[in-house]
From TrEMBL:
Keywords: Methyltransferase, Restriction system, S-adenosyl-L-methionine, Transferase
Domain DNA methylase adenine-specific: residue ranges: 98-210
A GO biological-process term: methylation
Keyword tRNA processing listed: no
E.C. number: 2.1.1.72
InterPro entries the UniProt entry points to: DNA_Adenine_Mtase, DNA_methylase_A-5, SAM-dependent_MTases_sf
GO molecular function: site-specific DNA-methyltransferase (adenine-specific) activity
A matching Pfam family: N6_Mtase
Organism: [Clostridium] symbiosum ATCC 14940
Protein's UniProt name: site-specific DNA-methyltransferase (adenine-specific)
Length: 281
């Protein structure tokens, strides 16, 4: 019988709710999980994020601290078993957390699948082979359901989305953006998730915080080489141009040099991902 990972998550989650609201615990879980993934790479924000992580985990009792890695392992196992789902988005609604955001609503996954198929209807594989890679953007990404469906649809069309698709996501709501970041990380997407207002501060505005997936750093050079005759706009759309715009300069924040970070990572970690997940120290 298949394990019901959502029920498993809720049972564990409820054990953390005694002294705090579900909203606070949910946000603490997302922030720590996002930092655990983001801090695999030596980004400029690493120390600040580590401090944030420690201040959150230290606010919990010892027995409570031990529940957080279990929650993340449940999310990981859920995606391992079924990558075609919006696991965190569904839990967010099931736990009534969307009421905090005035009834924020995410698109049901089967609708996302339909939309991705409509988008990818032509010969996606041939298009990717011709262009070298494609990019996809959701400037109001929520928990990332549309992008998850896009990744699965690309795979069904014979496209290795880990290497051939650049995902760009933005949401004004940090809670939603972190859900998206965690899910796209677990699916191995090369992705940048931007926290900020897509209307007044689109893309890599200096006020926006950006989370890059580890896979992004490993693959950014692929997008770099292929875009010398293309320009990537803030929302990820690709337009032909005569200028020699290199995607890394456009897709990364000015403070983030993906090539340099990748080199430092390869040296430091010997090319191995090591997730020091949700530990207290
Ligand atoms: C209806 S949800 C859709 C989420 C996702 N695209 C989906 O289909 O499941 C709309 C999302 O847009 C975000 N949003 C609303 N106004 C925004 C803005 N100005 N900039 C960025 N995100 C915004 C909300 O926080 C919310 O997560």
């Amino acid at each position: 019988m298949k394990k019901q990972w959502d029920k498993e998550f809720i049972t564990l989650f409820n054990r953390l709710g005694g002294r705090r609201s579900n909203w606070e615990v949910w946000n603490d879980f997302l922030t720590m999980a996002a930092i655990a993934f983001a801090n695999v790479m030596p980004t400029p924000e690493r120390t600040e994020r580590e401090d944030c992580y420690l201040s959150i985990i230290r606010s919990y009792e010892k027995e409570e601290q031990e529940i957080f890695p279990q929650l993340l392992s449940v999310v990981t196992m859920a995606f391992e078993e079924n990558p075609k789902q919006d696991f965190l988005g569904n839990l967010y609604t099931a736990l009534n957390l969307n009421q905090h955001q005035k009834g924020q609503f995410f698109t049901p996954y089967h609708i996302c699948e339909f939309m991705a198929e409509v988008q990818n209807g032509g010969d996606l594989k041939a298009e990717v082979e011709k262009k070298g890679f494609i990019s996809v953007s959701d400037p109001a990404c929520g928990a990332g359901a549309l992008l998850i469906a896009f990744a699965n649809s690309a795979r069904a069309h014979g496209v290795n989305y880990h290497e051939k698709v650049l995902f760009v996501a933005q949401d004004i709501d940090a809670t939603a953006a972190k859900m998206c970041y965690i899910q796209l990380t677990l699916l191995g997407c090369s992705a940048c998730i931007i926290i900020g207002d897509s209307l007044s501060k689109p893309g890599f505005h200096p006020d926006n915080e950006v989370y890059y997936t580890p896979m992004y750093f490993l693959n950014s050079w692929r997008f770099c080489e292929k875009t010398r005759t293309e320009e990537i706009s803030a929302n990820g759309a690709v337009a032909e141009t005569v200028s020699e715009v290199v995607i890394e300069a456009v897709v990364s924040k000015p403070s983030v040099d993906a090539a340099e970070i990748r080199e430092a990572f390869l040296e430091e970690a010997d090319g191995q991902f090591s997730f020091d997940l949700l530990t207290a120290s």
